[in-house]
Amino acid sequence: MSDLARQRTTAVLFRRSWAEIRRIADILRQETIGGALALLAATAALILANSPWRDAYEALRSFAIGPVALHLHLSLATWAADGLLAIFFFVAGLELKREFVAGDLRDLRQAMVPVAAAVGGVIVPAAIYLLVTRDVAGAARGWAIPTATDIAFALAVLAVIGRYLPAPLRTFLLTLAVVDDLLAVVIIAVFYTSKLSVAFLAAALVPLAIFAVLVQRRISSWWLLLPLAVATWALVHASGVHATVAGVLLAFAVPVAADEAHGDDADGPGLAEHLEHRFRPLSAGVAVPTFAFLAAGVPLGGLDGLVRAFTDPVVLGIAAGLVVGKPLGIMAATWLVARYTHAELDEGITWTDVTGLSVLAGIGFTVSLLIGGLAFGLDTARAGDVKIAVLGGSVAAVLLAAVILRLRNRVYRRMHHAGAADGEGDTRE
Fold first, then answer.
1. 73 and 67 in contact (C-beta within 8 Å)?
2. Which reaction does it catalyse (predicted)?
3. What CATH number has the domain bearing residue 51?
4. pLDDT digit string, tens, across residues 17-60
5. Number of domains, the chain
6. H or E element, residue 74
């Protein structure tokens, strides 16, 4: 390839600076812990829901608490979905804004690849779901369930099985998952808002605006910001828009770059990074595992129950969307960008690597369970089948991705050891 052609080519999966790789590595370590905790919580929920203590588990999920006058007398399961996941989306929003302002997504040529992949990973599984469930009355409301990627689980699995995989693959997955979270928020806000109260939504703008002014001035005192954040969340919840959207709105108000005029160290982290560092442990260690524990428990009904569930078109549609639709959509979008923008894979990375990564993105779990609850309710007859579909599809995606990526990891491990041996030989010379 000529020098001119190389200048015009945008790599689909591109190398990063060591600072960027270290940041991603730190996120991977944190998300690994969070993913492991969420997995343990989901496993515990499944065991309890299929044990002699299932009545106690359901009583815990349905236990209501909160002020009735403020319309916040909610079950613990609803508090987890509406309240704790707002923290998860706040952290995701901070990460997303950092990527758009100071990260890889600020360059349109680089951003178009993961953005296109994320869009493809939404359209195709939704289409597959609608195709499979076309004859089921009311099933269309669940079209968005298989469109989500659980960033914590996906990164955790990748960290465990892909130690030697190239850094660009991890970067691509992280960026894809972040954009996927943004699309999930938009879908929730637009398609799963049943009754919109413009008055409450307008009222939410007041504490949000005050919050924005304070953070723009680099004021990070919790006793000022926390009440404003809670007020914004409560008013968004009252408006009919899912309360997790408030987390993203608050995150987008936080400045990314350091500002010397407000006392920041020019070379130090901005407020967005500071708050992300502070709240990520709460999100990964408390919010997501608690939601997983209260949302994942479903009576399986033994082998007969599983067989019955997987003959339901809704269950099949969700599972097929996650296992088939997600990787197909991501691969197709990535190929189209590579085909029509003169982009190419980074040197040493193959389409087999991208395939494994695309299959891994089929882990829906947290956000898929959330959307499933919004689509069909938390305690309906359909809710149990949705949980089975999400859990089954996510497990299948993990197993398939593990096979592909483990094989590729062995290849890269041999290359790593060969390179290390060559380096030692050169040193001895």
1. yes
2. Na(+)(in) + 2 H(+)(out) = Na(+)(out) + 2 H(+)(in)
3. 1.20.1530.10
4. 556 555 655 654 556 677 788 889 999 999 999 999 999 999 99
5. 1
6. strand 74-75
Distance separating alpha carbons of residues 212 and 42, to the nearest angstrom? 36
75 backbone dihedrals φ, ψ, rounded to 5° = -70, 160
Beta bridge partners of 74: 65
Residue 219 located in a structural domain: no
pTM above threshold 0.90 = no
Q: Is 268 helix (H, G, I), strand (E, B) or coil?
A: coil
Q: Which residues of 224-246 are buried (b: 16+ CB within 10 A; e: fewer)?
A: ebeebbebbbbbbbbbebbbbbb
CB hemisphere CA count around 418 (13 angstroms) = 6
Q: How far is CA 410 from the centre of its chain?
A: 27
In order of 95, 254, 282, the CA distances from 276 in angstroms are: 7, 10, 10
- 248 in a structural domain: yes
The average pLDDT across 176-199 equals 87
Dump pLDDT digits (tens) for 315-344.
999 999 999 999 999 999 999 988 888 766
Residue 348: burial class (beta carbons within 10 Å; 0-12, 13-18, 19+): exposed
pLDDT recorded at residue 365: 87
Burial class (CB in 10 A: 0-12, 13-18, 19+), 181: buried
**Following DSSP, what letter does each residue of 26-42 receive, concatenated?**
HHHHHHHHHHHHHHHHH
Number of Cβ atoms within 10 Å of the Cβ of 31? 26
Asked if residue 213 belongs to a domain, the reply is: no
Joined together, the tokens standing for residue 295 give 């949302």
CA angle (310 as vertex; 305, 315 as ends), nearest 5: 115
Residue 336 sits in which domain range? 3-192+242-423
